[in-house]
Amino acid sequence: MSHAPQRQKGLALIIALIMLALITGLVVSSLSMGISNVKAISNTQFRDQALAAVNAAIEQVISSSFTSAPIAQEILVDLNKDSAVDYKVTVAKPTCVQATEVSSSSAPPSSLSLGAAFSSTTAGYYITTWDLDASVSDVNTGADVRIHQGVRVKLTQSQFAAVCV
Q1: Which class for 80: exposed (0-12), middle (13-18), buried (19 or more C-beta within 10 A)?
Q2: Count of helix runs (H) and strand runs (E) in the chain
Q3: Burial of 10 (0-12, 13-18, 19+ CB in 10 A)
Q4: Which partner from 21, 60, 64, 115 sits 20 to 30 angstroms from 73, CA to CA?
Q5: Domain boundaries, the chain
Q6: Can you tell me whether residue 14 is helix, strand or coil?
Q7: What angle do CA 47, 50, 52 make, to 5 degrees?
Q8: Are 151 and 132 in contact (CB under 8 A)?
């Protein structure tokens, strides 16, 4: 005696559709989370590159004789050395924020704290502290980085009078 499938009302089809909907929801959710993670990592990478560009521009200013005629500058930075400009960094006019006169009666600064260039015992110079303010904005990614860097520079009295007064 065989049983006829008269009592089946499509329950297997309904369960299969529910399972398919749940699996589709999981796949869409996983894909969405993956895309969000890739965007977050990309934004972090772009910010780190912008930070490297600002640091490269500040190094370029520090290695020049920026105290002789402090001016604001726009520095083009090629991070990956492919001959194409990656970032345009704006460096504000360096500011002399502090100066200490070293006279013959004062003890010279330690070469350990200020470096060998400051260990001279000659009188009549100033130890100056400069603020370098640099920023970069990338319109494509929205990365925006701003850095202040302090630099100590030894100046003669005439140099000091020309740029720090």
Answers
A1: exposed
A2: 3, 5
A3: exposed
A4: 115
A5: 11-163
A6: helix
A7: 110
A8: yes
List pLDDT tens digits, range 89-146.
999 999 999 999 887 555 555 545 555 555 555 567 899 999 999 999 876 777 788 9
Q: What residues pair up with 144 in beta bridges, in sequence order?
A: 137
- Residue 152's CB is within 10 A of a number of other CB atoms, namely 16
The residue type found at 27 is V
Tokens 């140099």 locate to 159
- pTM given for the model: 0.67
Cα 165 to chain center, whole Å? 31
Rounded Cα gap, residues 117 and 132, in angstroms: 20
